[in-house]
Design a protein that fits this description.
- The complex is a heterodimer of chains A (433) and B (294).
- Chain A contains 20 helices and 13 strands.
- Chain A has 433 residues and is an alpha/beta fold.
- In chain A, the strands form four sheets. Chain A has a five-stranded mixed sheet.
- In chain A, β4 (134-135) and β5 (138-139) form a beta hairpin.
- The longest helix of chain A has 24 residues, at 3-26.
- Chain B has 13 helices and no strands.
- Chain B has one domain: MetI-like (MetI-like fold, Orthogonal Bundle).
- The chains are: A alpha/beta (433), B mainly alpha (294).
- Chain A binds chain B through residues 3-4, 6-8, 10-11, 72, 75-76, 79-80, 82-83, 100, 103-105, 196, 247, 249-250, 252, 381, 385, 421, 424-425, 430-431, and chain B through 38, 40-42, 44-46, 48-49, 51, 120, 123-124, 127-128, 131-133, 150, 152-154, 236, 238-239, 241-243, 258-261.
Chain lengths: 433, 294
Amino acid sequence: MPAMKRALHLLWLLPVLLAALLAGCARAPSESRIVLRFWTMGEEGQAAAQLVKGFETLHPDIRVEVQQLPWTAAHAKLLTAYAGGTTPDIAQMGNTWIPEMAALRAIVPLDRFIAGSHIVTPADYFPGIWKSNVIAGKDYGVPWYVDTRLIFYRKDILAAAGFDHPPTSWAGWTRMMAAIKARARPGDWAALLPLNEFEQLVSFSLEQPGSFLKGHDQYGNFQSPQFTAALRFYLSFFRDGYAPRIDDTQIASVPIEFARGHYAFYVSGPWMIREFETRMPASVQKDWATAPLPGPTGADSNSGIAGGASLVIFRSSRHKAAAWKLIEYLSQPAVQDRFHQLTGDLPPRRSTFARPDIASDPYAAAFFAQLQRARAVPRIAEYEQIVREMQTIAARAAWGRLDVAQTTALLDRKTDAILAKRRWMIAHGRLAP
Amino acid sequence: MKSNQTLAAWVFTGPALIVIGLFFLVPVLLALGLSFTDFDIYALASLKNVQFVGFDNYLTVLRMGLFWKALGNTLYFVVVGVPLSIAAALGAALLVHSRLARWKGFFRTALFTPVVANIIAVAVIWKYLFQQHYGVVNYVLGWFGVQPIDWLGNPHMAMPTIIFFALWKNFGYAMIIVLAGLQAIPDELYEAARLDGASAWKQVRHITLPMLGPTLMTVGLLTMVGYFQLFAEPYVMTEGGPLQSTLSVLYLMYNQGFDWWNLGLASAIAFTLFVFTLAATFLLVRVGRRKGWV
């Protein structure tokens, strides 16, 4: 997200805060309606504010106060709210934050609610996505929308290089990039994988068996042959000159650069569909498509991150039953479809994907295919700290400052240090492994 | 009689001492204690999960590559920013103080306005001004044939841009203090110098600057200590990027403390920064003492 946009988010947060304040002041003390405090993040907040109107009509006894947090400040805000005892009733939460909130006992398991629900049916959800909220056998969130990283590509550039299909294997992808790079104008590249994003390397590693953590996620497993293979493949993009060594902050506009043919492949997530549809000129709209991430040995080995955001209920909430009603409402395929229309976010349920609006979207099909195979990342509080450290080190390797063996050894050392407290907690029986 | 006076002194200073103790001394001591523990996200869940770790956090800080990078960035900001701020403050004060200047009140207020302006609001405006493709700064530079510069996105340009922004935001405060110093210089000195045929520059060089020494010393110390605590400017303009080129020590502390909730480590970073600030202050005071400004 461009920095400017973030600042604007902060700005339009002001009226929302003011409105919340005024609403707080104006509320008559005798009001008998339940007030649910619902924290949302980023663009989804605006859509949520519209969706809850339908919920309030169905449940006149419940009023929902939607508060929008900017993504950049949301994590710190959640932790300080927990420390200060001011957590809301219900919140949208990035799946990778859930283990941390569960370790804090800030959010409650939802198994009891899910068992009694005929709307939230786990079997209808993509398995990897559903699993990403299960910690020590308990379910802490209901997926709201999904994120998995796959390839956006330029059909015309591939065709000019002699390929009429997107790549399905790592080797095939490399061949295509070599052919594209050989014909590229100076300054153009075969692919774009921004060096400050950890998702690409994590995605490649999830396409390999096993995990980059071992021993109940207590130690780094980066020196394993599986992760080493993923890292080698990742680094080959930069070593062989297929992708530039840049951060996404150095790109003014990905859609515009993609439209100009600066890159033939771009690894990104579902929100990019709408970005491309609205920001690329009409002349190139017929020339781009999405495809599942190529697998190490072909389409059968495809996988990816099972990411996204979920809805959670806080332990401090005095209205858990009402909060669950809101989760159920937002989980209905019809409401998820509306949410998709408002935001472009992709739904976590197969039955929502089957609705005509999404089923007819050619760009969503690749996501649907990959989401069946997407895998949950390690569910531990330290996950984000580890993958950010991983990316900082991988970026140095991409610049040629570290070789593969040095990189994986350093990653294991740093990760073991980050996980020291987790090992201590497990050894002392204070945390379920 | 003596004891009565002592009692009265305690009664008068007591409330202030209690407030300082409660809201300054106790939190500082608590933070110091925190820096010797591994207080983290698990400790937030239950205090039983806290361990005493001695100087481990401090060793971690000193071994952390990012800390030295952040310290380097902070020193860059201080070493370049403080002299520029003082120079700007002095220049503006001399102009406003000049007997030739009109509408002194207006200029004094106008130059002081950035200090009281809300930093979030002005940061948004400056971000627009510095925008690479449609910002006014590049538009104006374009008249002189300068290619568009990515002020906030280029790792080499981001810190200079932040320094400029901080300078604009903060120099008014120092200017007011320098202005007060200027007004305290007796006019007779200038009259005598003029009779001796000293030029305007010589008057500044041999009267204004020496007489302002103590004032400039104070302003320099205040500005330096303030600039060591660089945080708001990169937080609102660049979020520490690009390539961590505007990450300051305080920003690193914020990341560790409030993003990862490693409060033990964050406290250790804070006290390490305190030691560096203290050392720099002593150095400056020593120089000042030699020149007789303190």
